[in-house]
Amino acid sequence: MFDRIRARREHRASQRVMDELLKFAYQEPPVPNYPEADRASSPLAPAVPVVEDFLPPDLRLPTREEIAGMMMRWDTPLVIGGEIRECPQCGAYRNWVLLSVRDQVWLRCRAGHETLEPALDTAWYNRASGPMDRWHPTLEDGLKHLGH
Ligand SMILES: [Zn+2]
């Protein structure tokens, strides 16, 4: 009789252990309580922090698609296909401003004569120019900045 009572107790005890194990097996993983500063490194935090935006609009430079054209100084003689380009109206052959407008490149001499250069295009202009570092509200403002 004592054996049966002992056996029942042991059975109940092992049943409790099994219940505890099942409870653990079905539990959701605990949510770690990280301090505020460590939240970004928590595995539950998003991998990339959400930022409002890249820059305020007044600090952004326009993209090449948003501007009417690009310009740069070209002080040395411009040699295309072995020939030095010169202004057809005044004969100037250096101190150009090169204008890139709608996939065309225009040469502008010091006297303000503008000549389309069909041998050059935007791809050439982009290879020859540096990155855009400034923009001007008008063509005249840009020419003034470049000393023309
Ligand atoms: Zn000219």
Largest sheet: 4 strands, antiparallel
How does the helix and strand content classify structurally? Answer: alpha+beta
Summarize model confidence as the mean pLDDT. Answer: 80
Helix content: 25-40%
* Helix run count: 3
User: How far is the N terminus from the C terminus?
Assistant: 114 Å
Low-confidence regions: none
Going across the biggest sheet, name each strand in turn: 1-4-5-6
Assess the beta-strand content as a share of residues.
Answer: 15-25%
Shape: rod-shaped
Oligomer: single chain
Bound molecules: zinc ion
Count of β-strands: 6
The ordered H/E elements are HEEEEEEHH
Tell me the radius of gyration: 37 Å
Walkthrough of the structure:
By secondary structure, the chain is an alpha+beta fold. It has a domain at 62-145. Helix content is 26%, strand content 16%. The chain has three helices and six strands; from the N terminus they run αββββββαα. It has helices at 2-26, 122-128, 139-145; strands at 70-74, 79-80, 83-84, 96-101, 104-108, 114-117. The chain has a four-stranded antiparallel β-sheet with strand order 1-4-5-6, with no helix packed on it. It has a two-stranded antiparallel sheet with strand order 2-3. Strand 5 and strand 6 form a beta hairpin. The radius of gyration is 37 Å and the shape is rod-shaped. The chain starts with a helix and ends with a helix. The model has no long low-confidence stretch (mean pLDDT 80). The structure holds zinc ion. The site of zinc ion has 7 residues, from loops.
